[in-house]
Specification:
The complex is a heterodimer of chains A (about 100) and B (about 110). Chain A has three helices and two strands. With about 100 residues, chain A is mainly alpha-helical. Chain A folds into two domains: about 60 residues, no CATH class; about 40 residues, Ribosomal Protein S14/S29 (30s Ribosomal Protein S14, Chain N, Irregular). In chain A, α1 packs antiparallel against α2. The two termini of chain A are about 35 Å apart. By secondary structure, chain B is an all-alpha fold. Chain B has a domain of about 40 residues. Chain B has seven helices and no strands. Chain B starts with a helix and ends with a helix. The chains are: A mainly alpha (about 100), B mainly alpha (about 110). Chain A: It comes from Dimargaris cristalligena. Chain A: One of its GO terms (molecular function) is structural constituent of ribosome.
Protein backbone atom coordinates (compact mmCIF):
# COMPACT_ATOMS: atom_id res chain seq x y z
CA UNK A 1 0.00 0.00 0.00
CA UNK A 2 2.97 2.25 0.60
CA UNK A 3 3.87 1.97 -3.08
CA UNK A 4 0.39 3.25 -3.93
CA UNK A 5 1.00 6.33 -1.80
CA UNK A 6 4.33 6.92 -3.54
CA UNK A 7 2.74 6.47 -6.95
CA UNK A 8 -0.02 8.91 -6.08
CA UNK A 9 2.53 11.39 -4.76
CA UNK A 10 4.43 11.18 -8.07
CA UNK A 11 1.20 11.84 -9.94
CA UNK A 12 0.47 14.82 -7.74
CA UNK A 13 3.88 16.29 -8.47
CA UNK A 14 3.43 15.69 -12.20
CA UNK A 15 0.07 17.45 -12.03
CA UNK A 16 1.52 20.43 -10.17
CA UNK A 17 4.45 20.86 -12.56
CA UNK A 18 2.26 20.87 -15.69
CA UNK A 19 -0.80 22.58 -14.29
CA UNK A 20 -0.31 26.14 -15.54
CA UNK A 21 0.61 25.26 -19.12
CA UNK A 22 -2.21 22.74 -19.30
CA UNK A 23 -4.59 25.44 -18.12
CA UNK A 24 -3.44 27.74 -20.93
CA UNK A 25 -4.01 25.03 -23.53
CA UNK A 26 -7.40 24.24 -22.04
CA UNK A 27 -8.30 27.93 -22.23
CA UNK A 28 -7.49 27.95 -25.95
CA UNK A 29 -9.48 24.80 -26.65
CA UNK A 30 -12.47 26.13 -24.74
CA UNK A 31 -12.33 29.53 -26.44
CA UNK A 32 -14.72 29.75 -29.39
CA UNK A 33 -13.33 33.09 -30.57
CA UNK A 34 -9.97 31.48 -31.45
CA UNK A 35 -9.50 30.02 -34.94
CA UNK A 36 -10.69 26.38 -35.08
CA UNK A 37 -7.32 25.34 -36.47
CA UNK A 38 -5.49 26.79 -33.45
CA UNK A 39 -7.98 25.25 -31.07
CA UNK A 40 -7.34 21.88 -32.66
CA UNK A 41 -3.57 22.41 -32.33
CA UNK A 42 -4.00 23.23 -28.66
CA UNK A 43 -6.02 20.06 -28.21
CA UNK A 44 -3.26 18.05 -29.88
CA UNK A 45 -0.65 19.69 -27.65
CA UNK A 46 -2.73 18.75 -24.63
CA UNK A 47 -2.81 15.14 -25.81
CA UNK A 48 0.99 15.12 -25.98
CA UNK A 49 1.27 15.76 -22.25
CA UNK A 50 1.91 12.80 -19.95
CA UNK A 51 -1.28 11.14 -18.79
CA UNK A 52 0.00 11.41 -15.24
CA UNK A 53 -0.29 15.18 -15.25
CA UNK A 54 -4.07 15.00 -15.54
CA UNK A 55 -5.99 15.90 -12.41
CA UNK A 56 -8.25 12.87 -12.83
CA UNK A 57 -5.31 10.52 -12.21
CA UNK A 58 -4.96 11.78 -8.67
CA UNK A 59 -6.83 9.87 -6.00
CA UNK A 60 -7.29 10.79 -2.38
CA UNK A 61 -5.83 7.91 -0.42
CA UNK A 62 -5.57 7.27 3.30
CA UNK A 63 -2.41 8.96 4.55
CA UNK A 64 -1.80 6.23 7.13
CA UNK A 65 -2.48 3.04 5.21
CA UNK A 66 -2.77 4.12 1.58
CA UNK A 67 -6.22 2.60 1.29
CA UNK A 68 -8.10 3.95 -1.75
CA UNK A 69 -11.65 3.21 -0.68
CA UNK A 70 -13.66 4.43 2.25
CA UNK A 71 -11.47 7.49 2.76
CA UNK A 72 -12.96 10.37 4.75
CA UNK A 73 -11.72 13.38 2.84
CA UNK A 74 -11.90 15.81 5.75
CA UNK A 75 -9.46 13.71 7.77
CA UNK A 76 -7.57 12.05 4.86
CA UNK A 77 -8.00 8.77 6.68
CA UNK A 78 -9.74 5.56 5.79
CA UNK A 79 -12.71 4.55 7.90
CA UNK A 80 -10.80 2.14 10.15
CA UNK A 81 -7.91 4.51 10.81
CA UNK A 82 -10.41 7.28 11.46
CA UNK A 83 -12.18 5.13 14.04
CA UNK A 84 -8.95 4.07 15.73
CA UNK A 85 -7.60 7.60 15.96
CA UNK A 86 -10.89 9.16 16.96
CA UNK A 87 -11.34 6.70 19.82
CA UNK A 88 -7.80 7.43 20.97
CA UNK A 89 -8.63 11.13 20.89
CA UNK A 90 -5.97 11.98 18.32
CA UNK A 91 -8.34 13.86 16.04
CA UNK A 92 -9.20 17.26 17.50
CA UNK A 93 -12.89 17.95 17.93
CA UNK A 94 -14.06 14.41 17.29
CA UNK A 95 -15.78 12.50 20.05
CA UNK A 96 -17.87 9.38 20.02
CA UNK A 97 -21.53 10.23 20.11
CA UNK A 98 -23.98 8.59 22.46
CA UNK A 99 -27.61 9.48 23.11
CA UNK B 1 -19.63 50.42 -32.29
CA UNK B 2 -22.47 52.23 -34.15
CA UNK B 3 -22.24 49.77 -37.09
CA UNK B 4 -22.64 46.83 -34.76
CA UNK B 5 -25.26 48.63 -32.76
CA UNK B 6 -27.74 48.74 -35.63
CA UNK B 7 -27.76 44.92 -35.83
CA UNK B 8 -28.36 44.50 -32.11
CA UNK B 9 -31.64 44.70 -30.26
CA UNK B 10 -32.26 47.61 -27.95
CA UNK B 11 -31.55 45.47 -24.90
CA UNK B 12 -28.24 44.32 -26.36
CA UNK B 13 -27.28 47.90 -27.19
CA UNK B 14 -27.80 48.86 -23.56
CA UNK B 15 -25.73 45.88 -22.48
CA UNK B 16 -22.93 46.88 -24.87
CA UNK B 17 -22.86 50.45 -23.61
CA UNK B 18 -22.96 49.38 -19.99
CA UNK B 19 -20.12 46.94 -20.66
CA UNK B 20 -18.07 49.75 -22.21
CA UNK B 21 -18.73 52.06 -19.26
CA UNK B 22 -17.97 49.51 -16.56
CA UNK B 23 -15.08 47.87 -18.39
CA UNK B 24 -16.73 44.47 -18.80
CA UNK B 25 -16.57 42.19 -21.82
CA UNK B 26 -19.61 42.29 -24.12
CA UNK B 27 -20.33 38.95 -25.76
CA UNK B 28 -23.40 39.42 -27.97
CA UNK B 29 -23.42 35.96 -29.53
CA UNK B 30 -22.92 34.21 -26.20
CA UNK B 31 -19.75 32.51 -27.42
CA UNK B 32 -17.71 30.45 -25.01
CA UNK B 33 -14.52 32.33 -24.30
CA UNK B 34 -12.87 29.89 -21.93
CA UNK B 35 -13.17 32.36 -19.07
CA UNK B 36 -14.29 29.50 -16.88
CA UNK B 37 -10.91 27.79 -17.29
CA UNK B 38 -8.96 30.93 -16.44
CA UNK B 39 -11.04 31.54 -13.33
CA UNK B 40 -10.13 28.13 -11.90
CA UNK B 41 -7.63 28.47 -9.07
CA UNK B 42 -4.15 26.88 -9.24
CA UNK B 43 -4.47 23.75 -7.13
CA UNK B 44 -0.91 22.42 -7.48
CA UNK B 45 0.61 23.34 -4.08
CA UNK B 46 -2.49 22.17 -2.26
CA UNK B 47 -2.60 18.89 -4.18
CA UNK B 48 1.09 18.14 -3.59
CA UNK B 49 0.85 18.73 0.16
CA UNK B 50 -1.88 16.11 0.64
CA UNK B 51 0.43 13.55 2.23
CA UNK B 52 2.37 14.66 5.30
CA UNK B 53 6.16 14.97 4.83
CA UNK B 54 8.07 11.76 5.48
CA UNK B 55 10.04 11.41 8.70
CA UNK B 56 13.69 11.58 7.72
CA UNK B 57 15.73 8.42 7.61
CA UNK B 58 18.78 7.48 9.64
CA UNK B 59 20.98 7.98 6.62
CA UNK B 60 19.80 11.57 6.25
CA UNK B 61 20.39 12.14 9.96
CA UNK B 62 23.94 10.88 9.56
CA UNK B 63 24.48 13.18 6.61
CA UNK B 64 23.20 16.11 8.65
CA UNK B 65 25.71 15.46 11.46
CA UNK B 66 28.72 13.77 9.80
CA UNK B 67 31.08 14.32 12.76
CA UNK B 68 28.88 12.67 15.40
CA UNK B 69 29.52 9.02 14.41
CA UNK B 70 25.95 7.87 14.95
CA UNK B 71 25.28 4.14 15.07
CA UNK B 72 22.11 2.70 13.55
CA UNK B 73 21.10 0.03 16.07
CA UNK B 74 18.30 -1.37 13.91
CA UNK B 75 20.57 -1.85 10.94
CA UNK B 76 23.22 -3.48 13.15
CA UNK B 77 20.64 -5.89 14.56
CA UNK B 78 19.48 -6.77 11.06
CA UNK B 79 23.03 -7.49 9.86
CA UNK B 80 23.75 -9.57 12.96
CA UNK B 81 20.61 -11.63 12.39
CA UNK B 82 21.59 -12.27 8.77
CA UNK B 83 25.08 -13.24 9.91
CA UNK B 84 23.78 -15.86 12.36
CA UNK B 85 21.39 -17.25 9.73
CA UNK B 86 24.23 -17.51 7.21
CA UNK B 87 26.38 -19.38 9.70
CA UNK B 88 23.62 -21.93 10.24
CA UNK B 89 23.19 -22.22 6.48
CA UNK B 90 19.67 -20.78 6.63
CA UNK B 91 20.37 -17.42 5.00
CA UNK B 92 19.02 -16.11 1.72
CA UNK B 93 21.07 -17.07 -1.36
CA UNK B 94 23.38 -14.58 -3.04
CA UNK B 95 21.97 -12.63 -5.95
CA UNK B 96 21.68 -14.82 -9.04
CA UNK B 97 22.17 -18.04 -7.06
CA UNK B 98 18.53 -18.61 -6.14
CA UNK B 99 16.15 -21.25 -7.43
CA UNK B 100 14.44 -18.85 -9.83
CA UNK B 101 17.69 -17.70 -11.42
CA UNK B 102 18.93 -21.27 -12.00
CA UNK B 103 15.64 -22.15 -13.74
CA UNK B 104 16.01 -19.30 -16.18
CA UNK B 105 19.53 -20.35 -17.19
CA UNK B 106 18.40 -23.71 -18.66
Amino acid sequence: MRSRILRDQRQRQAFASHEVIRQVYRFITHNETVMPRNRYQAQLALDQYPQNSSSSHISNRCIETGRGRGVLQDFRLCRTQFRIKALRGEIPGVTKHSW
Amino acid sequence: MSGVGSLLTRQQQIAAISARIFGRAFNAEGKRTGERVLRQPIRGPEVVSYYPPEPFSFRELREMYPDMELIDLKEGARLAKIETLRRRGKGAPEKGAGRRASIKKR
